[in-house]
């Protein structure tokens, strides 16, 4: 997109300083992100983003959630006299036209702008130390939001609902639009999925019975969704589009799905896919240090289940997209989605072998 067009969009927001440069930032697959640099030394720089409104159909809801979450966290940090608050929570800038609105619509596209956090970095991979810090930070994030006074909207309906994800898969199997259902390796994977389906849907059942609460969760807890300072401490959690009420399993399980796989989620050599118990231990220790105070016994008991649930769910989602003809995730080659699904299935198999070790470690943390 041309520089002048981007500058025009920036000018719709109430920012401080004179814009002197706008350039692409990061490599996100969902939103488009730019860095906006201002001329004055004493004025902040900014991050401009176009929100993908196909993935997030109700951008107004996304931004109302974000406003509620960031202002609540800011209030908590002020109450506890935390220093450097502007680097510990994101600040979105209102539009000039409406001080209550944190986005603008231009030619049917949704744009927002936030303050760029200086001297902070994101990480792509984790070691035990950054996993422990991540666990602590996501636990703190959930703890700070435990008493948020408004109820948040569900920005992607049934996003982490296992029953819904299985139904989506069964629907695409019945329709078979890409003619891939009869492939023998697909049939074998479906057998493994169905074998576990009932057990994997237990969160939804407990939710209906009223024994498992939903809390405000981040719902995209990959390690690259947090900013670190130069001492390897977590400054703040970013990428808040999917913040919504969910079982806490979402944040715990999805971090481990990405952080504790010894290879990337699309690595094609299945014998290299392995669950890294050291990452599990560090993350769990960090998470329980900040979350055990508010977690119910049923939530803690089911952390090993949550660890298995997310690779399982992602296997179902990748296979669904493969059978749909690759409409959701970008693919680099024809079987890419199947490889991803298979990778997640192998991660699940490796996790299942670690159930006793996971349980023992959790008990040890609480003792
Ligand atoms: C998508 O684009 P990214 O990496 O933030 C997806 C996640 C999946 C992930 C798998 C809105 O996340 O739920 O776990 O791909 N986000 C959405 O790579 O569907
Ligand atoms: Mg993301």
General description of the model:
By secondary structure, the chain is α+β, with helices and mostly antiparallel strands. The chain folds into 2 domains: 113 residues, Phosphorylase Kinase, domain 1, CATH 3.30.200; 239 residues, Aminoglycoside phosphotransferase (APH), C-terminal lobe (Aminoglycoside 3'-phosphotransferase, Chain: A, domain 2), CATH 3.90.1200.10. Helices cover 46% and strands 11% of the residues. The protein is built from 12 helices and 9 strands. The strands form 3 sheets. Strands 1-2-3-5-4 form a 5-stranded antiparallel beta sheet, with helices on one face. It has a two-stranded antiparallel ribbon with strand order 6-9. The protein has a two-stranded antiparallel sheet with strand order 7-8. α4 packs parallel to α10. The radius of gyration is 21 Å and the shape is globular. The mean pLDDT is 95. Magnesium ion binds next to loops.
